[in-house]
Write a structure and sequence with these properties.
The protein has 506 residues and is mainly α. It is built from 23 helices and three strands. The protein has a three-stranded mixed sheet with strand order 1-3-2. Strand 2 (241-245) and strand 3 (248-253) form a beta hairpin.
Length: 506
């Protein structure tokens, strides 16, 4: 704890570190709930998480923290240091937002999230939306209260107040303006591919035991740059990455014993998140804004780059196929670099977002974004979500949703009460496309590096340009600083059109 003789800045960072420790304990409890916790423990786990959220929020809103922030803002030595100035500026933003939320609302949202997550798992298993409906209605009501506490930005809407938690500076209207031209470019591309002969998934039906897949994935993730001495890989229903603290960044995946590509692509995605977290300098600045992610959109840009631009490339398979053969032996017979490259880039509309290809994925996000805005505004009743969802899936992807499990119950986010989160997935794809253009211009030999199993040049570039700055820059400012251009749909569309035109002979 800070002492009476410590400077205001030292006292501030001590409080930020203390708050981060409390938050990390809650994160560890959440990770356990998704990976190891016995089902009957869910009720008490909700109380544990609620207690941790209360303790964290009390620290986040302590008036003494506000006094220290005010003192630091007047200290010329602090303001003259870029790292310290960033910490004070961003900590002030966090404090101002946190103090707008009553502690009891934060606690209620945390406890509801834990209980709703358990209810969602049951409802999803039964494919029964009505069983989850009361929980989603409660989450919508709580999120309305939360947004009202934050306040609607000038000229904006309730949704903007929630989106700010995940993507600083972004507004729903701007998201819509980015999504519209993206949809207009993707729709004819997907339609053109649908008229072409389907590409066979050469990996499908090849028996690859899950314990062997785990060994294979650990080797691949470690080679990319994920530090497994400061992390671990575990199975779960809905894969994620979570940071428990310095040198403890954990990822999860899901397995299909007859299609090793599913776990591979999921693991590459989560490893991308983890490598970002491991590059945030938490050893030095744990708990300080300087060592936290710029936004969820920037975070997603890192996971998507390693999953898609790297993991779906021909150069990647030139390196990875021999490793797969070493682990899976006869199961890899007949597979080639070309067949795996093509299998990794199949475009086919799918009911499930996380199993969707690069081209159709963003249409899933647009659907969820629109539903959240409508629920929050009251223009869509929660009871009508399944019908609205199913109609949109038919319109956008030509799919008849067979049940709620493969429809509106597929994602964990609404059970967590996370509204405003979904747009960051496509924003991440857009950031990624723009970063990818720039890194290839600056590092023109990446394909040769990947084929040789050398991913260090890409990781070093990302560390320098994206990871190390943390929250020094707002996400859109970071994008423009790195690429020289404001965020746009065009680089992602150009990348997809170029690759898939060749792949499908369009």
């Amino acid at each position: 704890m800070p002492t009476a003789t410590a400077s205001a800045y030292d006292q501030l960072t001590a409080r930020l570190h203390d708050r981060a420790v409390v938050d990390s304990i809650g994160t560890l409890l959440s990770w356990d709930q998704e990976t190891k916790m016995p089902p009957k423990a869910s009720g008490y786990r909700a109380k544990q998480l609620a207690m941790m959220s209360r303790m964290e929020h009390e620290r986040a809103t302590d008036p003494a923290l506000g006094d220290l922030l005010a003192a630091c803002a007047e200290d010329s030595d602090v303001q003259g240091d870029p790292v310290k100035a960033t910490n004070v500026r961003e900590a002030r933003k966090d404090y101002d937002r946190a103090t707008k939320l009553p502690t009891e609302l934060v606690v209620e949202m945390t406890e509801t999230s834990s209980l709703a997550m358990d209810a969602w798992k049951t409802a999803r298993a039964k494919s029964d939306f009505k069983e989850f409906q009361p929980w989603l209605e409660k989450h919508v009501a709580l999120n309305r209260r939360k947004a009202e506490c934050y306040g609607i930005p000038e000229g904006g809407e309730l949704y903007d107040a929630l989106l700010e938690d995940y993507e600083t500076g972004m507004r729903a209207a701007q998201v819509e303006s980015l999504f519209k031209p993206l949809r207009e470019r993707l729709t004819p591309l997907i339609a053109a591919i649908a008229d072409k002969p389907a590409i066979e998934n050469a990996a499908d039906g090849r028996a690859c035991p899950i314990p062997v897949q785990r060994e294979f994935l650990n080797e691949i993730a470690g080679a990319l740059g994920y530090d497994l001495d400061g992390g671990r890989l575990d199975p779960t229903t809905h894969p994620f990455c979570q940071t428990m603290g310095p040198k403890d960044v954990r990822i999860t995946t899901r397995y299909d014993a007859n299609n090793f590509l599913d776990a591979l692509q999921t693991t590459l995605h989560e490893a991308g998140h983890a490598m970002y977290e491991q590059g945030l300098e938490t050893d030095t600045y744990f708990g300080e804004p300087r060592a936290t992610a710029a936004s969820l959109g920037i975070h997603e840009s890192q996971s998507r780059m390693w999953e898609n631009q790297v993991g779906r490339s021909e150069a990647f398979w030139a390196w990875a196929l021999p490793i797969a053969k070493k682990h899976f032996s006869a199961a890899m017979d007949g597979l080639t670099v070309e067949s795996l490259h093509r299998s990794s880039n199949i475009v086919k509309p799918h009911f499930i977002r996380v199993e969707s290809d690069e081209a159709t994925y963003n249409l899933h996000i647009m659907l969820r974004f629109d539903i959240e805005r409508l629920m929050l505004s009251g223009d869509l009743a929660v009871a009508d979500v399944p019908a609205w969802w199913n109609d949109r899936m038919k319109t956008d992807l030509g799919l008849d949703v067979p049940d709620d499990r493969r429809g509106c119950l597929q994602d964990v986010h609404w059970s967590m009460g996370a509204m405003g989160y979904f747009p960051t997935y496509t924003l991440g794809n857009l950031y990624c496309g723009q970063f990818w253009d720039t890194v290839n211009a600056e590092l023109p030999n990446l394909d040769a590096s990947f084929a040789a199993g050398d991913f260090a040049p890409l990781l070093a570039w990302l560390r320098d340009k994206v990871h190390t700055p943390g929250r020094t820059y707002a996400p859109q400012d970071l994008c423009e600083r790195v690429t020289g251009k404001p965020l746009s749909h065009e680089p992602l569309c150009n990348y997809l059109e170029s690759k898939l035109t060749e792949m499908y002979n369009l």
